[in-house]
Each structure stands twice: as C-alpha cells, then as structure tokens.
Amino acid sequence: MRIYLILLYLALTTMSLAQADTIIALPNAHAHNDYEHKKPLFDALSNGFTSLEADVHLINGNLYVAHDPPKDLAKTPTLQSLYLEPLYRWIAEHDGRVYANYEAPIFLMIDIKTKAEPTYEVLKKTLAPFEKMLWHVENGKVKPGPVRVFLSGNRPIAMVQEEKKQLAGIDGRPKDIGKGYSADFMPVISDNYRRHLSWRGKKEGPKIEEYDQLKAWIEEAHREGKLVRLWASPENEAVWIKLRELGVDLLNTDHLSDLKNFLLNEAKK
Q1: CB neighbours of 258 closer than 8 A, spacing ≥ 6?
Q2: Mind listing the pLDDT tens digit for each residue in 32-83?
Q3: Do strands 136-138 and 165-166 pair parallel, antiparallel, or not at all (unpaired)?
Q4: Are 50 and 266 in contact (CB under 8 A)?
Q5: Mean of the per-residue pLDDT values for the chain?
Q6: What are the backbone angles phi and psi of residue 91, rounded to the nearest 5°?
Q7: CB atoms < 10 A from the CB of 8, how many?
Q8: Which of 107, 116, 142, 151 has the fewest CB atoms within 10 Å, measured from its CB?
Q9: In the CATH hierarchy, which fold is given to the domain comprising 2-268?
C-alpha cells in the first residue's frame, strides 16, 4: 500500500509541474466512483473535476475504498492513502488550492457502505489530521478550506447534526427539501435519474410532466442554496444538455474526458 501511495504521489507531482496552472476547473463535473478509474484522483484532477466520489467500507477499524466489500485488504486502498494524503500534499504545493484559478472548494463525496454510526466515528478520526484543508463548520461558523466533504449512502444525519465541529456535511435527498437543513450542513441534493426521467437521450425529449416535476424540485433545492446531482443518468450529450437546461449542477459521469469536452464546448457557446 505504501508503494502504491508513493507512485500515486509521483504521478500527482509530475502533473503539478507540467499541467497544474493550466487545468480548467469544471464546477459541474462529478466523477462517479472515482476510485475505479485507472488513476484515482489523478485522472479527475487532470480533467478539472470539482466533485469526486469514494465508496468506503469500515473493516477492522479502517476505511477501505471499494464498491463492494473488499476480499483482499492488502490490495485495497484506504480513504487516507487514496484521497486524503495525496490531496493534502497537492494543496500544500499549490498555494492552498486545488486549482490555480478556482477559489471554491472541491467536493469529496464519501458514500458510506457499512453501518452509518460506527463508520462515521472512524471517519471523524480519519478526517481530523486533515482539518486544515477541509471546509467545515465549527460552533455554527464556516471555516473555509479547499476540500468539502459530504456523506452519502448510509447517512449519519443525527450524529453530524450534534457535532460542534462538523468536518463533513450530508448528501440530501428530495424528501429533505423543506426540512430546514442549511446548505452548510447539506450542500447537495442527490437522487436517481430513473426516479424522475424515463428518457434515455434518444428521439424526442423527456415527457413534459416528468420534466416539469423534476424542474420544480430542482428550483426548490436552489432556493435553499443547495446544488443538485442525479446519479445513474445516461452518458450522452443529449441528456447532459437537458440536465443543464433543467438546472442540474453536478453532472454524474464515468467518462471523464467526454464530460470535460462537453462542458468546455458548452462554455464556448
């Protein structure tokens, strides 16, 4: 694992020397299951993504990054080795930012696959040494930082609410809109694309009633200052165009370069 971390860090360093100052940050790009890419974190950073997704499993007191429960822990990276330590070094070497021309924090969405409460207890301790880089809330006041963590999957909502120092926020759901959760606590509202649109990006556009219903709750989320993400959305430009039209803030993708090119081309229009 230590060798893997060193190799990843060397890759990040190489990119920092050649590309870091020229990377264009993409505020609408979310790297779905980022850890499954050839170079986790590195591929997303090199493409300018501002939102990353990591699934974690609590096993033997450690947080392992994997979609399914890992069978070989020796070959499975931890959240600390795959994301937190490389990000901390990257930011330290780049004047306290992830991207040179991007002042907002990037998102690190941690999808909890094991039981919410015990996983969160370990996660708090894991995040604590990296507090300086984390956007967080302490005694009701925002403490800025270049990385903003929020928790999805099995969400420990009540536990996070009770914390005086909240190093992580919560990934919301449409049913959470109107419940009084602040955008500081719940920065994003996420849901399954298929619960709202049956359209797959071919032939005519989405059904009018589906479109209108989706647009209505997206606007409600925006009134609360929250961003919107739809997972399991079709991976094609027709759908991306329609989602942007609807106001979806974070486009969910496994195809990093395709979404990057789409967003850059859209920005030119």
Answers
A1: 235
A2: 999 999 999 999 999 999 999 999 999 999 999 999 999 999 999 999 999 9
A3: antiparallel
A4: no
A5: 93
A6: -65, -40
A7: 20
A8: 142
A9: TIM Barrel (3.20.20)
pLDDT value at position 17? Answer: 42
* 166-222 residue pLDDT tens: 999 999 999 999 999 999 999 999 999 999 999 999 888 899 999 999 999 999 999
For residue 257, give both structure tokens. Answer: 């370069």
- Alpha helix stretches (DSSP H) within the chain: 2-18, 42-46, 79, 85-92, 116-127, 157-162, 208-223, 237-246, 256-268
Amino acid identity of residue 90, one-letter, is W
| Alpha carbon distance 9, 113 (integer Å) | 27
Segment among 88-97, 214-223, 240-249 with least mean pLDDT:
88-97
Burial 143-182 (b: 16+ CB within 10 A, else e): eebbbbbbbbeebbbebbeeeeebbbbbbbebebbeeebe
Helix (H, G, I), strand (E, B) or coil at 142: strand
Locate the domains of the chain by residue range. Answer: 2-268
Helix (H) or strand (E) run with residue 75 in it: none
